[in-house]
Write a structure and sequence with these properties.
Blueprint (H helix, E strand, L loop, with lengths): L6 E5 L8 H11 L3 E5 L11 H13 L4 E6 L4 H10 L3 E4 L8 H22 L2 E5 L9 H8 L7 E6 H6 L4 H8 L3 E6 L1 E6 L10 E6 L8 H11 L4 E4 L9 H15 L1
Parallel strand pairs: 1-2, 1-10, 2-3, 3-4, 4-5, 5-6, 6-7, 7-10
Antiparallel strand pairs: 8-9
Helix pairs in contact: 2-3, 5-7
Length: about 260
């Protein structure tokens, strides 16, 4: 496998202040093949304008040789319609565990996603569910359990290297766990930092998001497993760093590192 078999995407959340034209020039200059766009309030395009705005956004990016591989957004019909009109194949979402508890959340959210399958079929757009630390489905096994009754052509898994590592999973097992539903791979990295001193009665920890080489997640092991299994899809670099002021330098280093692994 060569780097050309993998398409590299950039989640553009840190650059909400750039115009669409500036964003396209910036992403293309870094060497990405396209983007995941945060179709959310306060960004260059918001969900209520998806049907007209996403095709225009896609055309601007196309003029710079870039695609929109996915949007991080909500599941209203206008988002599906906008994605279909712009040729965007996937909407990324996460499942937050509610006050009614984990198992009831699974039952409730499965019902909700089953109700969205007709929109997936109507517009030819897939929903991708990503794990996330905290009050969400946190690891690959949670994703597998949640997604097991869905057709992956409608509802897929987005495996995230950092969040699976924070949950204690190794990349080979995590990727294998969701392989049947795997729709996209996120590369980012993080580790735990102790917030309280050794004399504290109650120990507190925080998560520190860092560059690709530095955290708990092994990007080389993940890349080797993806190559072993013949993965030919999108690898999205999410550009999440606690050192936010260094984002431009860090993402340039990380895309070069990620490409070298394939």
């Amino acid at each position: 496998m060569t780097a050309n078999a993998i398409q590299f995407s950039l989640f553009t959340k840190p650059w909400k202040g750039k115009s669409v034209e500036q964003l396209a020039e910036f992403v293309g200059g870094l060497g990405f093949d396209g983007i995941e766009f945060p179709l959310r309030q306060g960004y260059q395009l918001e969900p209520q304008n998806a049907e007209q705005g996403l095709p225009r956004l896609a055309e601007t990016l196309k003029s710079h040789g870039l695609q929109i591989f996915s949007v991080a957004s909500s599941t209203e019909e206008q988002v599906f319609a906008g994605c279909a009109a712009a040729g965007i194949p996937m909407i990324r979402i996460m499942i937050e565990v509610g006050q009614d508890g984990y198992l009831e959340t699974i039952r409730r959210e499965r019902r909700r996603l089953h109700e969205l399958v007709p929109l997936c079929e109507k517009y030819g757009v897939r929903l991708g569910v990503q794990q996330h630390y905290g009050d969400c489905l946190v690891d690959s096994m949670s994703l597998r359990y949640f997604l097991q009754e869905f057709d992956p052509k409608h509802i897929g898994a987005i495996w995230d290297s950092a969040h699976d590592a924070l949950a204690g999973q190794v990349p080979e097992f995590g990727l294998d766990t969701v392989w049947e539903h795997l729709s996209m791979v996120n590369f980012k990295n993080a580790y735990y930092v102790r917030k309280t001193g050794p004399e504290a009665l109650d120990v507190e920890w925080k998560r520190h998001f860092t560059s690709g080489r530095q955290g708990l997640a092994s990007w080389p092991r993940a890349a080797n497993y993806l190559k072993f299994r013949g993965y030919l899809g999108v690898v999205c670099l999410t550009a999440e760093y606690d050192a936010e002021e260094e984002v431009n330098r860090l993402i340039a280093e990380d895309i070069a590192y990620a490409k070298s692994l394939f």
